[in-house]
Amino acid sequence: MRVESRELTRAGTSALAFKELLVVTGKGGVGKSAVTAALGLLLRDLGRRTLLLEVDPRESLHNWLEVPPSGGGIVEVRRGLYLQHLSPRHEMDDLVREHLRLGPLIRRVLASPVYGHFADGAPGLKELAVLGHANRLVRGPRVKGAPPVDIVVLDAPASGHGVSLLTAPALAASVIRQGPFGRMATHLTELVADERRCGIVVVTLAEEMPAQEALELQETLVARLGRPPDLLVVNGLYPPLTEGVAVAARDRAGVELWRTRRSVNERELARLRAAWTGPAIELPLLPFDRGGQLIAALRDHLDGAFGPGAGDRR
After folding, report:
1. I want to staple 281 with a disulfide (CB 3.0 to 4.6 A). Which of 1, 95, 226, 305 is the partner?
2. What global pTM score does this model have?
3. How far is CA 143 from CA 112, 234, 296, in A?
4. In the chain, what are the domain boundaries?
């Protein structure tokens, strides 16, 4: 099954492949991690050395890609595609080690209650650490043990926290003006604002609450960052039913449920089409369990967002 020809709009989405960072966000439960994994696979097939980065403590991306959990290290999914689970606090501690370098001083700082309160409570610092790590993977200085990477796809927290992640550098830069964290905040503010380098992908379902949250997220990003998302992915669409086909009595309840869900999809698609201002792609509900088969199928559908046959260069 291919992506339907009547989509919201696809103009310009090929530019996503040439960014340095893609931040994937959306309401919880919309298939954000599955879309992140599929995007990573497609970008890899387009010849981009890609690292998928997740920060959710539950660490689930490896299940979609059928590889061992990262555990903080970098796992090679296949040639040119990598996966890492990142702990923001551990990344902040590593930054302290990198900048202080003297063992006794490092131990004293990391053990200090003042540093602990600062690291856990200062607004935007954990988000800064995540974005800083992603930036270093692409631009350097090199992360120890990391392969060369062209693009990082970040499986970001759900919508509200995703906005916090994207706005954290500007917030931190306004508070911390000097030192390594201040310099990092300034550089990352420039990264997030640069549409040539940083892309934002919003994942939703064609259902009332996720669609509304996606539209509100679009407004929030324009208001707070001065830029809209780069792509909307409408996931899990029920395919239209073929009318006039005989249905056994035992299956009628299921068919009616299917018809109801498709009706909801069509209503919310109409609302999204009327209000979404940028490129978007629609993905069908697929009959696969979590794992590589589903991700490969989603990758083929996402291929349409990058132009017909764009990912055929394997």
Report:
1. 305
2. 0.85
3. 26, 34, 29
4. 13-312
